[in-house]
Amino acid sequence: MIKNYANTTNKNGSFASEKYNCRAKWLVEGHEYYSHLYDRLNGAKETIFIAGWWVSPEIPLKRPLPFEMIDHESRLMNILKKKVSNNKLNIRLKKA
What predicted TM-score, i.e. pTM, was given to this entire model? Predict the structure, then answer.
């Protein structure tokens, strides 16, 4: 049986209803994504999984001013070094 979604009453004519109290975030710009990622990595207590076909350890996750970028604490490699030295934390890299 084929369901007809044309007569839906959901927002924007969507087939799915709007969800509330979910953990998903709508991140439109890279600035928002990297800022959120920085906060989550710093809050990690047990394991960090990183999967990607291209991961740059030099990327700053919080956008500093250009003259502050030499060895900024928000770079991915500095965050991972800090997490490993402070905790018994597993960091697992997977090349996708």
Answer: 0.67
